[in-house]
Amino acid sequence: MSATDWRALWAGGDLGRFCFVSLGILLHATNETMIATIMPGMVADIHGVELVGWSLAAYEIGSIVAGAASGRLVSYLPLRGNMAGAALIYAVGAAICALAPDMNWFVAGRLVEGFGGGGLTALAFVSVERLFEKRIWPQLFAIMSVVWGVAAFSGPLIGAFMAEYLSWRWAFGLFCAGGLAMAAATLVVLSGPGATALARGTAAPPPFPFGPLAVLAAAITFVASAGVAGTPVLGVPLVALGLAGIAAFFALDARRPQARLFPQRPLDPRTLLGNGLLMLGALSIGVTPFGIYGPLLLVTLHGISTITAGYLVAAEAVSWSVLSILVAGARPHHERAIVAAGALMIAAAMAGLTWAVPAGSVPGVLACAIVQGGGFGICWPFVTRMIVASARPDESAIASSAVPTIQRIGYALGAAIAGIAANVAGFSHGLSAETAAGVARFLFAAFLPFGLIGLWTALRLLKRVAAAPPAGS
User: Comparing 28-37, 67-76, 185-194, 256-265, which segment has the lowest mean pLDDT?
Assistant: First the structure.
């Protein structure tokens, strides 16, 4: 294959169009990671600390639904119209958050933002197939990875800067302006036939999984509601309903082969694929409390500046990106050891945070953030490859898309469960140094079982990889 001529791609407009499309990823991912560092200032302003977990859960619910919808909506509406619409929805959600008089309105805005941001991200991947030659797809996907890394690093810092020197509301105002600008520019920049024609010819559009996604959204909502139910009499049934809803989602998804979001038996611990998805799901749930509550607890308990808290959260993202690049060229016979090391690093970091956050140790929190992010960075690509390779040939594409979907479901569930744990530990009585101390002691310890589940399923995964026949045999 000949080397990619980046200068020619820029002169022809392809690279410029792709950079524009990637702005949707930047808007979505930066907003998603920014929430951790604006939380202290926001809670001080509009209160509602008991609903903090909802802020991420609602965003992820919107992202999951929009991500699943976007790939199918281009069969009904051209790519350009979809992207402009998603950008407008994103801008409306950001405006609701910026103007929110209380936490209930803020959570509603985050749900709308999630719809728009999830749509922008999914449409960026769709645009690669629709707008660009296949020979440059690997290079474009590599650029997308860089964009994710930049967003994950810059989001917490933007939030910290805004909260420290302006207001948390300005941060959402900035993203509202970005969404409006992207919606307007989309109509000009995306003018070719690939962006203005439907993704299908005369074929019938693929079915959209309205039912399963509605059940999943309701299930996560039930779990999140348990955190603010006030009494176990209400909370326990809500958790039970949520768990039943998640089981129903997977059952319904399995019955719709043409609109399936997951491959067959996605969470079966007796299969290689099932262990891989269980591992990623459990670890995604397990690391959620640090991103949501870490800065809030450090600022409230120990007087650490928001900027410092922002750097601590950003360190996790930087470590993920850097170590992922460092191990990308590892030889196949080293992959199992790398995955085992990654899972162990994540579990160890989760355990370390149970001491570092209550103690207010900035070096300790930094070390845990680096180890936690690095653990994901070294194992994620190889676990993904193992999952896709173990899927049936006709389900390899579904298996590939199932990895980010299970990650988002994990984050949404993790946010809901973290809200329950934080409110049980004291935030149901409001934010104070005393309640924050109780939450810091309990919250991270409550999530250790998910780290152990992730480690256990990782070992089962690697055992099955070792026992699997060589490829092509």
Answer: 67-76
| Residue 181 Cα distances to 29, 82, 109, 178, angstroms | 17, 15, 19, 5
Q: How many helices (H) and strands (E) does the chain have?
A: 18, 0
In this structure, how many other beta carbons lie within 10 angstroms of the beta carbon of residue 306? 26
Q: Closest Cα partner for 72 from 212, 208, 210, 263?
A: 208
Taking the mean position of all CA atoms in its chain, how far away is CA 331? Answer: 29
Give buried/exposed letters for 334-359 (b at 16+ CB in 10 A, else e): ebbebbbbbbbbbbbbbbbbbebbbe
Q: How far apart are CA 98 and CA 80, in angstroms?
A: 27
pLDDT at 70: 67
The answer to whether 342 touches 379, Cβ cutoff 8 Å, is yes
Q: Which of 60-74, 285-299, 350-364, 453-467 has the lowest mean pLDDT?
A: 60-74
Helix axes 103-131, 52-73, angle to 10 degrees: 30
What is the spatial distance between Cα 380 and Cα 257, in angstroms, rounded to a whole number? 27
* Confidence (pTM): 0.77
Is residue 87 classed exposed, middle or buried when 0-12, 13-18 and 19+ CB atoms within 10 A define those classes? buried
